[in-house]
Write a structure and sequence with these properties.
heterodimer; A: about 350 residues; mainly alpha; Cytochrome Bc1 Complex, Chain D, domain 2; 2 domains; two-stranded antiparallel ribbon; 15 helices; globular; B: alpha+beta; 10-stranded mixed β-sheet; 5-stranded mixed β-sheet; 5 helices; about 20% helix
Chain lengths: ~350, ~270
Amino acid sequence: MNKLHKLSLAILLSLVFIVFLIGCKKETPTPETVAGLTPYVLQIPKSLPPMVIPASNPMTEEGVALGKQLFFDPILSGDNTMACANCHKQSFAFSDSTIQFSIGIDKLPGTRNAMPLVNLGYQKQFFWDGGAADLESQVIGPIQNPVEMHENLNNVLAELNAHPTYPALFKKVFGSDKIGTAMIMKAIAQYERTIISGNSKYDQVKAGTASFTPQEQRGMNWYVDMKKGDCAHCHVLGSTFSDFEYRNTGLDSLTVDKGRGRITLNPTDDGKFKTPSLRNIALTAPYMHDGRFKTLEECIQHYNVGFKYTANLDPNLDNIKKGRLNPADVQDIIAFLNTLTDTEFISNPKFKK
Amino acid sequence: MLVSNQVFVLFFNSYSIEKMNLIKYTSLAFIAITALTACKEKTTEAPAKVTPPTANVDLLFSNEVDGQALEFGQLKYTNAAGNLYQVDLLKYYVTNVKLMKADSTFINLENYDLINAADPSTCVVNGLNIPNGTYTKIIFNIGLPVDRNHTGAQDGDLEPAKGMIWDWNTGYVFFKHEGKYKNSSNQTKSLVFHFATDRALTIVEMPLSSPLVVNGVDKKVFLKFNLNKLYTTPSNVDFNVDYDRQSSSNMDFPWLDNLKLSFYDAFIFDRIE
């Protein structure tokens, strides 16, 4: 190409660029994410299925990083003392240490046990009763709850919009000069979807790189045996270790907390709660929606002998014999449940502040 | 969009034809200039004598009680059951406004507007570029359709900080009246009515006694909302009995199901300017 050609090409490209700018300005709607962001590539372990990311909230490196910063930032609470991370600690599989009810900024306890945040991208609804219809919508619950972070969304927006660094970060991720609640929800949900655990001893055994002790193997046998543990009906073996359905497990003769019934207003859902995943279950004591059981042994004994014949009792429990596990069987199941702990996950630096 | 597409074609061509001669570059540059000019023309006004094919139609909502303009925080209104009451807050979503012609064809504004009676700037639904024609009916939702009611990650009037969303059971409150009333013991007590969940979605059909004729000139349609009418269907509501209905218990729903029918009577067509 001679010089004249190069010059013409340069002029042409400049003109094309100008036309492109003018053409775009008026007619292209604001995109969900801004060009120039790096798509976030989820590392899904072999033991888990592909994660479906909602089209309305595509994951980017920048969005995940912003979500992580917000997750650890007490700016989201009423007196700027409490972050999401205060009650969702990585060392406890993102649940709240060993306390039954987390304490909010006003020193008030909640009424349900803080849930672990693990493999959330596989769940459809959030909270123990599934009241949050998607992960994004879950975010504003704890922020506004008077017994949790007790903050008003307008305050959050005012503080973030006046912050020295947040406005530029939000603009980079969402292309907007003004921070809106939806952006906070989306960023935190993006980060939460990266919190994936799938490298427990169980997974290593499945992959052939480790092997169960005889006791762990017996425990797994009882876990799936419908006449013994019968755990797998709900805590489906492998993958997410839950079907995430709502069940009444006979904790109370008379309903204390309506659970799912509060959401659906259907009396047959009273006392039902979402089946939690059993991954990292050894780290998330105490147990049940209200943290009433301190140990895994208490949980298993509840399903073995303790459950009550309530109106909405799950049919799997209604139909099974009480006292089918002897004390040794219970210890075997606990040994198996301990193989679901993912030590790499709880120390993984990419989830840290 | 057309302009952008042309540019893309040009852009890719300019890569693949590196050996093209000067004449071809020049003609391409000429096309680009033409595209630029064409783009500019879009913003210039059409000649004055030609009737534009569309016009803007604004729907203005006037919130009142039996013909009195709404005043907040005043214990001055009397409902059909004879209860003295006041309004401290009145907000509702008007969505998917449809302007319908006599042949039942319609244009959907696809709007999601939160009317806050305390802020007149919010009491309007803007219909942009409405095709010319004669519209005989206005249909709209009080509340959000199902596809918009189950996530909070939304903007505009659906921004969660607007205070209309439930954070414990994802969904918006469609209609809120909060205030006070004087009970039968002459005590002033709180009044809370929240219409929420998909079940509370209400469609209002409003025939226009004088049709909306759009012929290239912007129009304003004035509508009234008479709060007192809401508390008359199917029978007069006594605030001594019903004073706290928030759509969060089964007891609320038979009452709300009945009451929502009265939105038909509470919204009234006023005039067109």
